[in-house]
């Protein structure tokens, strides 16, 4: 009977487990002996010990079988931040999360861990060593941020210790690592087309990043809730990074040089580039019924490239026992090593 109890406690579900972040989490959970179910819009891979459930996140009846017997659910599903489909963001991040919360209650899930984003407090201006006390962005810079704010509020407001349902939001920032379909491939594609010669703004703006496997190694150990959570305890969100602020353009340069490409050298004024990005974004929106195109530099990307945005992990360290398991130096090395096919001349 005791072994049965342990098995139930080791069951979990990863919503969005076919994606970049979700797959890393699934692998780490398996390493630690969890029985894992994955729910996603498609099955992205096969692993022994993983049960896949394919369906629409907004379909509660499709979602419920994936949650049966799970004591903890990790909610990682979200459209790519690069998308400009407002309806899709709202459907997945807002309506889909409402469905997840309903299904979790119905299935008797005890804990829900949301992968939120540090962008929920970002308005395109400098953020330096920010704590979680910073208010939500009043003017979200894109649809992704707008709906992530709504999503996080839904999850934290659903926390109900009195009824045995605990929720917490993890706010990683600048996630990268092996198999990342966004940062490194886009960076290399831009370099190959001669578009990585320029530095936007000044070179001293600092950022913090989150190396995916290291981040998820911690999360997979089950330390996913405040230790002293009580009915009167406020709902919590936690910044999670590698805890090593680095200059944004230095980070990009190390990735590029590691793969054999030249680092950016020429400077462009930040306000000029941001204004052009905003103009192109507005044109894309206005011309969408007639013409579809996606600007390379969106206002969000320009803002991220030209401002300070680094966050404090003090609360996660103190309340969750968080610590980065891989240094930033090692994280960059492992990431570069994982992309031999993207090296110059490959």
From TrEMBL:
List the catalysed reactions: 4beta-methylzymosterol-4alpha-carboxylate + NADP(+) = 3-dehydro-4-methylzymosterol + CO2 + NADPH; 4alpha-carboxyzymosterol + NAD(+) = zymosterone + CO2 + NADH; 4alpha-carboxy-4beta-methyl-5alpha-cholest-8-en-3beta-ol + NAD(+) = 4alpha-methyl-5alpha-cholest-8-en-3-one + CO2 + NADH; 4alpha-carboxy-5alpha-cholest-8-ene-3beta-ol + NAD(+) = 5alpha-cholest-8-en-3-one + CO2 + NADH
This protein's membrane topology, according to the annotation, is:
Single-pass membrane protein
Q: Which GO terms describe its molecular function?
A: 3-beta-hydroxysteroid dehydrogenase [NAD(P)+]/C4-decarboxylase activity; oxidoreductase activity, acting on the CH-OH group of donors, NAD or NADP as acceptor
Which stretches make up the 3-beta hydroxysteroid dehydrogenase/isomerase domain?
14-268
Supply the alphabetized keyword list. Answer: Acetylation, Cholesterol biosynthesis, Cholesterol metabolism, Endoplasmic reticulum, Lipid biosynthesis, Lipid droplet, Lipid metabolism, Membrane, NAD, Oxidoreductase, Steroid biosynthesis, Steroid metabolism, Sterol biosynthesis, Sterol metabolism, Transmembrane, Transmembrane helix
Q: Which GO terms describe its biological process?
A: cholesterol biosynthetic process; cholesterol metabolic process
UniProt enzyme class: oxidoreductase
- Taxonomic superkingdom: Eukaryota
EC number(s) recorded for this UniProt protein: 1.1.1.170
Q: What stretches pass through the bilayer?
A: 198-218, 272-291
Q: Where mainly found?
A: endoplasmic reticulum
Q: Where is it found, in Gene Ontology cellular component terms?
A: endoplasmic reticulum; endoplasmic reticulum membrane; lipid droplet
Cite the annotated pathway: Steroid biosynthesis; zymosterol biosynthesis; zymosterol from lanosterol: step 4/6
Q: Which SUPFAM superfamilies match?
A: NAD(P)-binding Rossmann-fold domains
The cross-references to Pfam families, in alphabetical order and at most eight, read:
3Beta_HSD
Q: Where in the cell is it found?
A: Endoplasmic reticulum membrane; Lipid droplet
Q: Which PANTHER family match?
A: BIFUNCTIONAL POLYMYXIN RESISTANCE PROTEIN ARNA, SHORT CHAIN DEHYDROGENASE_REDUCTASE FAMILY 42E, MEMBER 2
Self-association and partners: Homodimer.
* Family (UniProt): Belongs to the 3-beta-HSD family.
What is this protein identified as? Sterol-4-alpha-carboxylate 3-dehydrogenase, decarboxylating
Q: Say which species the protein is native to.
A: Lepisosteus oculatus (Spotted gar)
């Amino acid at each position: 009977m005791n072994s049965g109890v342990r098995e139930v406690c080791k069951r979990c579900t990863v919503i969005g487990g076919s994606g970049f972040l979700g797959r890393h989490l699934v692998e780490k959970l398996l390493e630690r002996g969890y029985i894992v179910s994955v729910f996603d819009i498609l099955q992205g891979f096969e692993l022994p010990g993983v049960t896949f459930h394919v369906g629409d996140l907004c379909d509660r009846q499709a979602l419920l079988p994936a949650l049966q017997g799970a004591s903890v659910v990790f909610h990682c599903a979200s459209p790519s931040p690069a998308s400009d489909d407002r309806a899709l963001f709202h459907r997945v991040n807002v309506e889909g999360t409402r469905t997840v919360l309903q299904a979790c209650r119905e299935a008797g899930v005890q804990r829900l861990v949301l992968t939120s984003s540090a962008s929920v407090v970002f308005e395109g201006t400098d953020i330096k060593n920010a704590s979680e006390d910073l208010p939500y962005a009043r003017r979200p810079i894109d649809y992704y941020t707008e709906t992530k704010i709504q999503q996080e509020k839904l999850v934290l407001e659903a926390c109900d210790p009195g009824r045995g349902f605990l929720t917490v939001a993890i706010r990683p920032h600048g996630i990268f690592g092996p198999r990342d379909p966004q940062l490194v491939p886009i960076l290399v594609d831009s370099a190959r087309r001669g578009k990585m010669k320029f530095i936007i703004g000044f070179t001293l703006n600092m950022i913090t990043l989150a190396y995916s496997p290291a981040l998820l190694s911690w999360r997979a150990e089950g330390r996913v809730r405040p230790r002293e959570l009580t009915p009167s305890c406020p709902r919590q969100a936690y910044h999670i990074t590698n805890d090593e602020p680095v200059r944004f353009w230095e980070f990009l340069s190390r990735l590029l040089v590691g793969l054999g490409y030249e680092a950016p050298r020429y400077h462009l004024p930040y306000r000029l580039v941001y204004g052009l990005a905003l103009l192109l974004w507005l044109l894309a929106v206005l011309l969408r019924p007639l013409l579809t195109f996606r600007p390379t530099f969106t206002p969000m990307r320009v803002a991220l490239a030209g401002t300070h945005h680094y966050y404090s992990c003090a609360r996660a360290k103190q309340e969750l026992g968080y610590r980065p398991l891989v240094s930033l130096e090692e994280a960059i090395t492992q990431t570069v090593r994982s992309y031999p096919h993207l090296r110059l001349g490959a």
